[in-house]
Design a protein that fits this description.
Residues 23-269 form the DNA methylase N-4/N-6 domain. This protein has 352 residues and is α/β, with parallel strands linked by helices. It contains 10 helices and 16 strands. It has helices at 39-45, 48-54, 58-79, 106-116, 173-176, 182-188, 220-229, 245-253, 266-274, 277-301, and strands at residues 2-9, 23-28, 80-90, 93-97, 100-104, 119-128, 138-139, 147-148, 153-161, 192-193, 235-238, 256-261, 308-309, 316-317, 328-335, 341-348.
Length: 352
């Protein structure tokens, strides 16, 4: 099995190198409006935002920033297949503008944007992203009533294009082999993820100047979403590519990927990360199977014997749909001739 992974240095407001209805899944984390680290980027896109911020008009600045993201959402509507899924990781912002402190609800604005474009909202996910500071309050501290709750969560908003789910041919191998275990389904499809933590992206090798343009976006999030909402061989798009975490997750999950990124230097960062894909994909598959075997052992101790046996691995499974599950191991990654991407070779992961 072969997958391809392309990176386009360009503006995601015009995904000109992505064909209509050619993407099955979008997994992305855009710059968050009204978070100060992204002000410069949004001002470059619309200088009127700087005027709004300087005049203390936070509401106008907030809407103008989202207007730039709206142009990306227009493109996602075009490139997604009918029934395709968009997963948008976004956090709300707290900020004082003109000495007035408030929350700017990015998740609500993105939700409205997708609904207005005909997407169906699906149940979303909250993941806990602890603050770096040990202080758990803002404002007046221990004196009521002017202290504020500290935001320690982000949203993964999930949308489906059109009213119908994707269809597959009966018994499609690429779908059934991409199944997840019963206990993974219970954990992954919970609406609150408490065991996933934010993490700084590795930006060594002379790229420390890019740190402010990267995000604390753990690999576990896009990897889970690829497994949850796509099948082997599908194409995953990240219009806000950054250090390529979504593409790395897609490689490990046996999916194709496309990334759009304004900063060309991030491609050099990804070249270092992708070299670890074979070992990473192998470790992910092994760990998933180890956890499943631990689950089976605990289930048996509780007097519950799984009803089926997996076809490709020596382990019982709970449901018939899990029988064909088969992990893919990256056996090699090579750079494409045009230098704008990579090709990955995958073999079935053999585990005893």
């Amino acid at each position: 099995m072969e997958t391809t992974h392309r990176v386009v240095v360009g503006d995601a407001r015009e995904l000109s190198q992505v064909a209509d209805e050619s993407v099955e899944l979008v997994v992305t984390s855009p710059p968050y409006p009204m978070i100060e680290m992204w002000d410069e980027l949004f001002v470059e896109l619309d200088p009127a935002i700087e005027d709004a911020l300087e005049s203390g008009d936070g509401r106008t600045a907030f809407e103008a920033m989202h207007a730039q993201l709206d142009r990306v959402w227009d493109e996602l509507e075009r490139v997604l297949v009918d029934g395709g899924i968009a997963c948008i990781n976004v956090g709300d912002a707290t900020r004082s503008v003109d000495d007035s402190f408030r929350v700017y609800p990015n998740h609500a604005r993105v939700l409205d944007a997708f609904e207005s474009r005909g997407f169906d909202p699906l149940p979303d996910i909250l993941w806990r992203k602890p603050a770096n500071s040990a202080a758990k309050f803002m404002g007046s501290g221990m004196i009521p009533p002017n202290a504020y709750v500290t935001l320690e969560h982000e949203y993964v908003l999930i949308f489906r294009k059109g009213g119908d789910s994707r269809s597959f041919e009966p018994g499609a191998d690429r779908r059934y082999e991409a199944a997840y275990f019963w206990e993974e389904r219970n954990r992954w499809f919970s609406d609150v993820w408490t065991e996933v933590r934010g993490e700084l992206q590795a930006l060594d090798g002379g790229h420390e100047d890019l740190r402010e343009r990267s995000a604390a976006y753990p690999l576990e999030i896009p990897y889970r979403l690829c497994c949850m909402y796509s099948a082997y061989g599908d194409t995953v798009l990240d219009p806000f590519w950054g250090t390529g975490t979504t593409s790395l997750a897609a490689i490990c999950a046996g999916r194709n990927s496309i990334g759009y990124e304004l900063e060309p230097a991030f491609r050099e960062v990804f070249a270092d990360r992708v070299a670890d894909a074979p070992a990473l994909s192998r470790s992910i598959g092994r760990r998933r199977l180890e956890r499943h075997r631990e689950f089976v052992a605990d289930r048996r101790e509780g007097g519950k014997e799984p009803s089926y046996d997996a076809v490709h691995y020596e382990t019982p499974v709970v449901t018939k749909m899990e029988r064909e599950i088969r992990f893919r191991e990256v056996t090699g990654v090579e750079e494409l001739e045009d230098g704008d991407g990579h090709r990955a070779e995958h073999d079935p992961l053999s585990l005893e």
